[in-house]
Design goal:
Helices cover 34% and strands 12% of the residues. With 298 residues, the protein is of the alpha/beta class. The chain has a domain at 70-209 and 247-291: Glycerol-3-phosphate (1)-acyltransferase (3-Layer(aba) Sandwich). A seven-stranded mixed β-sheet has the order 1-9-6-2-5-3-4, sandwiched between helices. The protein has a two-stranded antiparallel sheet with strand order 7-8. Strand 3 (115-119), helix 4 and strand 4 (138-140) form a beta-alpha-beta unit. The longest helix has 25 residues, at 267-291. It is globular and about 55 Å long. The protein starts with 25 loop residues before the first helix and ends in a 7-residue tail after the last helix.
């Protein structure tokens, strides 16, 4: 009779001891990790202590102390612990305001804390730049990210409700706030029951003024926008960092607190608070400008 084929799964052949891969300890695997940071000093958001420290000691330190000569008011309004949502005006071709606000908290606050800056998703389309911004403390502007940072991790978060509308603003419209969206930042603070700290920045509009937007060149180059500034486009891409030495003044206003649970469910209240925050920032901006004697010396 012909031999039947067995349906039993064949037992795998035992490999000889000589053919087995050598077991590696966990410490030995570290040298196989890619990237420029062998020690992997990153948090869950991709923030790098090494790269952020390098930027802080070089570019940001220079701009904060010597170029913009920042003056800070109301730093005590920033929470020393727990979550806090900072809401600021936004302006300039490549806005330096976020870096200066973070530096102010680090240098002037009695209890310095890291600041997480929310950025829009279109930055993911720029290779190199999209890899850099998470390493210096930027996170994608998504409600889930803000909720985790404020509520779960009890961190400070900076948002710019004007978004791209603020950075595309022309110099003739300086310090005139754009609409603050649908109040998503207020809902996030209410949901996490963390305070909102309004922030006013004067000086960024003159440091990186935008005189015009060229739409055809924007579509041709694929840039977010194609502004005409004192140093761009004739200075190339580095011209976007060609800030003028305007005097910076940063004012942290009194916080707005949300201690009751479920406040975010009242959409009318959310819109009311959003308008109130915008009005407070606008009022203080006009006051600070009226008291300023010089764009360059304050």
């Amino acid at each position: 009779m012909p031999t039947r084929t067995s349906l039993r799964v064949a037992e795998p052949e035992q490999a000889s001891d000589d053919s087995r891969l050598p077991a590696l300890r966990r410490d030995d695997l570290r040298r196989h990790l890619p990237g420029i940071e062998p020690e992997r000093q990153l948090n869950d958001w991709g923030r790098s202590e090494r790269i952020e420290g390098l930027f802080d000691k070089t570019l940001i330190e220079f701009f904060y102390r010597y170029w913009f000569r920042c003056e800070v008011e109301g730093i005590e309004n920033v929470p020393a612990s727990g979550g806090g949502l900072l809401v600021s005006n936004h302006s300039g071709a490549l806005p330096p305001d976020a870096a200066m606000i973070g530096k102010a908290i680090k240098e002037e606050h009695p209890h310095p804390r890291p600041l997480n800056v929310t950025v829009e998703h279109f930055f993911k389309g720029y290779p190199g730049f999209s890899m850099l911004i998470p390493k210096i403390g930027c996170v994608a502007a998504h409600p889930a990210n803000v909720q985790r940072l404020l509520f779960d991790e009890q961190q400070l978060v900076l948002v710019f409700p004007e978004g791209r509308k603020g950075t595309e603003k022309l110099y003739k419209d300086r310090y005139k706030l754009r609409r603050f969206g649908r109040g998503g930042f207020v809902e996030a603070a209410m949901r996490a029951r963390t305070p909102i700290v309004p922030v006013c920045v004067v000086g960024a509009e003159e440091a990186a003024p935008v005189f015009a937007q060229v739409k055809p060149l924007q579509r041709l180059t694929g840039l977010l926008y194609f502004p005409i500034t004192p140093t761009f486009p004739h200075g190339g891409l580095l011209g976007m960092l060609g800030y003028l030495p305007a005097k910076f003044k940063i004012r942290f206003l009194e916080p707005i607190r949300f201690d009751e649970e479920g406040m975010h469910e009242d959409k009318a209240l959310v819109q009311t608070v959003a308008h109130e925050v915008r009005a407070r920032i606008q009022e203080n901006l006009f006051e600070m400008i009226s008291k300023r004697k010089s764009v360059w010396f304050g």
